[in-house]
Write a structure and sequence with these properties.
Helix content: 55-70%
Order of helices and strands: HHHHEHHHHEEHHEH
Largest sheet: 2 strands, antiparallel
Bound molecules: iron/sulfur cluster
Strand order of the largest sheet: 1-4
Number of strands: 4
Strand content: under 5%
Low-confidence stretches: 232-236
Protein name: Zinc/iron-chelating domain-containing protein
Number of helices: 11
Mean pLDDT: 86
InterPro entries: Puta_zinc/iron-chelating_dom
Organism: Aeribacillus pallidus
Pfam family, one: CxxCxxCC
């Protein structure tokens, strides 16, 4: 039997510990780290493939720490395969995340699946524009979006994520610890935790890698930082608008 108060307290503690650890990572993986450790990649790759490479590295590092913190907390997420309430939330995705998703779709989807996904992305985009309006990551926007029951275009007919291995950080870092049905109303419950610090740490690590690349090749880093990491919270996009399926 789950003690709700105890679980909520543990979840708050985990959130704090994870935030502290991810904060430390941001400082450890500065531009000098990339210039020292990944100089061969910096030298030989074009920037698009290099961004994908450092994002995958940053994702591994950051998620390893996050999973350690989660294991040590003794908490077990109540999120289960087939539960997909949070897949009707508006999901933010950063430009470098969409590179990874695009690559995954290219490598793993059949032509029929790609066609279907393209249709889903288009339909979802049209529904969002028509029924919810301009994207703003605010509480009322999220509620309005959820009420429209617009499912993520990557959710398949069995209620499973078709890009699970490369799903966006906003999907990975959202966990509920008491009962997944609490997500049913579209709100983040007291016993859920959105580990936004994971997303922010990975974004900072990717930024450091891009700065190192630009330093080496004598390029203006601002252009590439804007293009690949987004300059501010406003540059976050929702899934249907960012992923280009070829
Ligand atoms: S990407 Fe996957 S986990 Fe994330 S909202 Fe879509 S279907 Fe759900």
């Amino acid at each position: 039997m789950i003690n709700e108060t105890e679980t909520i307290n543990k979840a708050r503690k985990l959130l704090k510990k994870s935030a502290d650890n991810q904060h430390r990572l941001k400082y450890y993986y500065g531009p000098e780290f990339f210039l020292n450790k990944y100089i061969n990649e910096i030298k030989s790759m074009i920037i698009r493939e290099y961004v994908l490479f450092i994002y995958e590295e940053a994702r591994k590092i950051s998620l390893k720490h996050f999973n350690n913190d989660l294991n040590e907390s003794g908490l077990t997420p109540s999120c289960k395969k087939g539960c997909s309430f949070c897949c009707s939330f508006p999901i933010s995705v950063l430009p470098f995340e969409s590179l990874l998703i695009e690559q995954y779709v290219k490598d793993n989807f059949s032509n029929v699946q790609k066609k279907e996904l393209k249709r889903n992305l288009k339909n979802t985009k049209n529904r969002v524009i028509k029924e919810v309006g301009k994207i703003q990551i605010t509480k009322s926007y999220k509620e309005k979006y959820y009420q429209k029951d617009i499912k993520c275009p990557f959710l398949n007919e069995s209620n499973l994520c078709s890009i699970y291995d490369v799903r966006p950080l906003s999907c990975i870092s959202y966990l509920e610890f008491i009962n997944s049905s609490k997500c049913q109303n579209g709100n983040i419950s007291d016993s859920a935790a959105a580990f936004l610090d994971v997303e922010s740490a990975i974004r900072t690590i990717v930024r450091s890698g891009i700065i190192a690349y630009c330093e080496y090749h004598k390029l203006d880093s601002k252009t590439y930082l804007d293009r690949y990491t987004g300059a501010s919270q406003n540059d976050y996009e929702l899934l249907p608008f960012s992923v280009d399926v070829h």
